[in-house]
Specification:
By secondary structure, the chain is of the alpha+beta class. Helix content is about 30%, strand content about 25%. α2 crosses α3.
Length: about 375
């Protein structure tokens, strides 16, 4: 019997669970929330925090899974790499997981490899040595936009903004970095035994400063072949710099007005909603590729479709009102199961009211749902 450890039981893990079942794996699911969404789809559930590396390792030594993984959580990825490395499985190293989570280590590796990224420094309420404006204050080791603040003037670097970042930082350290203006994209890749493959390039939309939060994403990015090849080469350069050898990776970049590419940050795991977007638009089973890589298989694939998929994030009631309008006029494009009565103004991606997908087969229809990527 084949066993897989999946770390995290959120709704965003369902593609991974269902695909693992198609591989005839016995599903062992770990989550600190005993009522987590995905529990009912697992074969065995463990009410263990995914940050508890040693306890999960103990279970892994007992059960001997072939794969330990996650697709939707940074903490889960750190633990997965730790446990899988201890078992001698196909995995990125624990150091890789740390280096693609700790944003200051990330900056150092990028700088050491002459890869363009925003200038950055660690700050505290006692030590603020910074003179580049505009800037972003963020936790050194968090994700999903948690604890981020925009700084337009030097006097905006306040204790309140540092405290906002600190509350989401596991190491209790805060980073400030220059704000790079430009179009934002992300590079979705899969690697097996150190061989890299471009799966897709995503257009990422964010709200304008000061309340910077991702609002929607579109795959495939509407770019020409020359830029696509340039971004692909840039992405592979980054993967090599971080010694990423296995599985999915997600790299966020900016394209400036001067046509320069900058790394914002990266993760040695799949980006949120990417498995669904890539499947809808390109007909590529991204999760299957991820699992094949962790089984040590060679990767070979090509798109079976040339369509478009969008995920829209419900940040506020206005976003839900837009969904209601789409339901009235363009329901055949929608994939959603949202029914809401109360709303909050979301501050980060882990604080969303919800999300929904738009699947567009005719590219002439894209403008009905999303503006050009400026």
């Amino acid at each position: 019997m084949k066993h897989i450890f999946i770390l995290g039981g959120s709704k965003e893990q369902l593609d991974l669970i269902f695909e693992a079942k198609r591989f005839y794996f016995i599903i062992h699911l770990f989550d600190s929330n005993e009522n987590c969404y995905a529990r009912k789809y697992s074969d065995y559930f463990y009410n263990i925090s995914i940050s508890n590396k040693e306890e999960i390792l103990t279970e892994a030594i007992r059960i001997k899974p072939l794969i330990v993984t996650t697709i939707a959580t940074e903490i889960g990825n750190i633990t997965a790499c730790y446990v899988a490395q201890k078992l001698g499985l196909n995995t990125n190293s624990y150091d890789v997981a740390i280096n693609t989570t700790n944003k200051f280590k990330m900056k150092n590796i990028l700088n050491d490899n002459n890869i363009k990224t925003a200038k950055a420094s660690i700050i505290s309420k006692e030590t603020i040595n910074w003179d580049i404006i505009p800037a972003i204050i963020k936790p050194i080791d968090s994700s999903a936009g948690r604890g981020i603040s925009y700084v337009k003037y030097l006097e905006d670097i306040t204790n309140e903004k540092i405290d906002n970042a600190l509350q989401f930082s596991k190491s209790k350290k805060v980073l400030i970095e220059e704000y790079i203006k430009g179009k934002q994209f992300s590079i979705e890749t899969v690697s097996s035994k150190g061989e890299h493959h471009l799966v897709a390039i995503t257009e990422e939309y964010t709200s304008l400063p000061p309340n910077i939060i991702e609002t929607k994403q579109l795959i495939p990015a509407r770019i020409d072949d020359k830029l696509k090849e340039r971004i692909k080469h840039f992405g592979f350069q980054i993967l090599n710099a971080f010694k990423i050898e296995f599985g999915a990776a997600h790299i966020e970049i900016k394209l400036t007005e001067n046509n320069d590419l900058y790394v914002i940050e990266l993760a040695s795991r799949m980006g949120g909603w990417r498995s669904e977007l890539i499947n809808f638009s390109l007909g590529i089973n991204y999760v299957q590729l991820h699992l094949l890589s962790l089984l040590g298989k060679d990767i070979n694939f090509k798109p079976s479709k040339d369509e478009t998929a969008i995920v829209k994030l419900i940040i506020s009631k206005e976003d839900y009102d837009e969904l209601s309008e789409f339901r009235e006029n363009n329901s055949s494009y929608l994939i959603d199961d949202i029914d809401m009565n109360t709303f909050k103004n979301s501050k980060h991606l882990s604080d969303l009211n919800g999300f929904y997908f738009i699947h567009i087969q005719n590219k002439d229809d894209i403008s009905k749902f999303i503006e050009e990527h400026h």
